[in-house]
Amino acid sequence: MGSDPYGRYLVAAVAAADVASGVLMSRFNAGVQKLSSWEKSPGALVTEADIESDQVIAKALKASGCGGVIISEESNVDLGGGGIDPDCKIEWLVDPLCGTVPFSTGMNHWGINIAMRANGELTVGALATPTCGIVLTSEVGSGVKLNGERLGVAESDRNLGEVVVGLEIDGQDVWRSLLNSGGLDWLTRVLQANSFASAAYPLMLVATGRMSAVVFYRIDPMHVAAGSLAVTMLGGCATDGNGDVIDWSRDDELPMVVVGWPKVHDQLIEVIGQSG
Questions:
Q1: How far is 155 from 207, CA to CA, in rounded Å?
Q2: Which residues pair with 70 in a beta bridge?
């Protein structure tokens, strides 16, 4: 493939994230009260902004000529061939608007996730949080960049009881089950837990060293792939609730994902195992 085998795919991911950011910021600034919205399933909100972002991302990835298949929260699209290596299976994991609920209520903690999977392995990621002016990019073999500049984050040496941790749970039924079973007892061990109703936003906070870890319950890979790639390439961890490495070749829902800096991550895994 050459000295920079995934550079072409990263350029495509960034271009797609950029055009989607423009569309979403235009919608956001124009007033979210004007958006049409509906539930695609009970409790799963979608707006016309989600669909428009999904469409422009697909158009941008198709125009890149990189080929592959888009696996999106809103649609699946076969882009055909065009990749550098014809034997490499290319799949794009896309969340066109990560944080539909905060977006639709005028809150700024939302983003865009685009990751590329080559033969089942994460290789490229672009995570954009437009209201923060941040684009976080990752490419295996080339490192992680923040708005085009190489990113280096010093690991926090603080203990779990001294840090803020993100908690993302999608759906009332999941919340109810975890609360009733004692599955969230581990929360009493952290300094503070914040929930953003988004994966992109807290993953950006972890990757940039502003938050120590984030725990997701019942989440699809497309929501967390780009951010998890960035954190792990920076020296952090992304595992399931048992501390085992995520199998990123799968498309089905992940029961739990824990992403964070090693010391806090390992303490989280321990206390989560003691809960419920």
A1: 10
A2: 77, 92
Residues 6+ away with beta carbon under 8 Å from 10: 116, 124, 126, 137, 139, 142
CB 166 within 8 A of CB 205: yes
Sheet with strand 237-239: strands edge to edge? 192-194, 164-169, 213-219, 254-260, 237-239
Q: Each residue of 81-129: pLDDT tens digit?
A: 765 566 789 999 999 999 999 998 899 999 999 999 999 999 999 999 9
Q: Give residue-wise pLDDT tens across range 25-73.
A: 998 988 766 777 545 655 566 688 889 999 999 999 999 999 999 999 7
Q: Which residues pair with 153 in a beta bridge?
A: none
DSSP string over 72-95: ESS-EEEEES--SSTTS-EEEEEE
